[in-house]
Design goal:
Blueprint: H1 2-29, H2 32-41, H3 49-71, H4 73-82, H5 92-114, H6 125-147, H7 155-172, H8 174-184, H9 192-216, H10 220-224, H11 226-249, H12 256-298
Helix pairs in contact: 1-5, 1-9, 2-5, 3-5, 3-7, 6-7, 7-11, 8-11, 9-11
């Protein structure tokens, strides 16, 4: 019986690793379609600036959280003291995903500084206030943990706060994009391939967490890694909303932003041609006047 249980547990662990790296590939790949779409269109029109900036902050928090839980022996010991000696469920694929996501999110943010966007595409004041507040509170908690004050604040408390920031962002960041799609009655500028890969990653990430908790016979591991569980569930929920918008509600794929850019370019070219023709006529008239004046003096 013990041998059978050992084999079953070994298989479960192998399956967990397979699911984990598959979710890593799916979630990591989900960042490329949007970056490629921006590059192909040479535009970020139709993309929420709130989403982009919140994404970078969220994955910065998530990267710090996973790196600390995976590499810091101090944080690991703090977790054990609070969870009856149990190990945390952060895996290597969680670390690689978070860091990769931070790099790609930052790259997409950089694209918004380069490519065409509407004058109205700006970071909203509520988002600016949220980012500033999260940064200030994080620094405050880091100070408390460093000095050992504030009801014996530990580093794990700082990490849990960062995880709550990430969870909040995972909910908040999608809302502006849902609104933009609804207002435009279109999903142009927002990559559906990103969403399909994100949905796959969300399902697999949640499945790995549940499987690991089952194998360790410690369901508190889910609440101990609430950010991973919440991230997976929120991703699934919003991905289903975007799929509904793209395939059911707003199936018109006409890029009205491109049409506007073309019209503006044509208008600009027309104005340039008119300006050149006007200058040419003025030069011709001036030359003619000079020749007429020379002829009159000769006579």
């Amino acid at each position: 019986m013990d041998h059978q249980e050992s084999l079953s547990k070994g298989f479960g662990q192998a399956l967990s690793h397979l699911i984990g790296w598959t979710y890593f590939l799916a979630w990591s790949a989900s960042f490329y379609p949007q970056a490629l779409l921006n590059w192909r269109r040479k535009s970020v029109q139709g993309l929420s600036m709130d989403f982009i900036h919140l994404n970078v902050l969220g994955f910065l928090c998530y990267s710090i959280y996973n790196l600390a839980f995976f590499y810091s022996s101090e944080v690991q010991e703090e977790y054990k003291r609070r969870n009856d000696g149990q190990e945390n469920l952060v895996r290597a694929n969680d670390v690689f995903f978070a860091v990769h996501a931070l790099i790609l999110s930052t790259f997409t943010l950089a694209q918004t500084w380069i490519y065409k966007r509407d004058p109205t595409q700006k970071v909203s004041w509520p988002t600016r206030i949220f980012i500033a507040s999260a940064a200030l509170l994080s620094l405050f908690l880091v100070g408390q943990a460093s000095l050992g004050v504030g009801h014996r604040r530990e580093w794990i408390d700082v990490l849990y706060f960062l995880s709550y920031v990430k969870l909040s962002i995972s909910f908040i960041k999608y809302c502006p994009q849902v609104y933009i799609n609804w207002k435009a009655k279109s999903t142009v500028g927002w990559s559906i391939h990103n969403i399909l890969l994100d949905l796959t990653g969300g399902v697999l990430s949640t499945a790995q967490l549940i499987l690991d908790a089952s194998l360790s016979e410690d369901w508190s591991g889910i609440t101990g890694d609430l950010v991973k569980f919440g991230l997976g569930m929120l991703s699934i929920a919003f991905d289903l909303v975007f799929i509904l918008q793209h395939y059911v509600l707003y199936r018109d794929r006409t890029d009205h932003y491109a049409a506007t850019r073309t019209a503006l370019a044509d208008n600009k070219n027309s104005e340039e041609r008119e300006r050149l023709l006007t200058q040419g006529n003025r030069s011709y008239n001036t030359q003619s006047d000079l020749e007429s004046g020379s002829g009159a003096r000769l006579n």
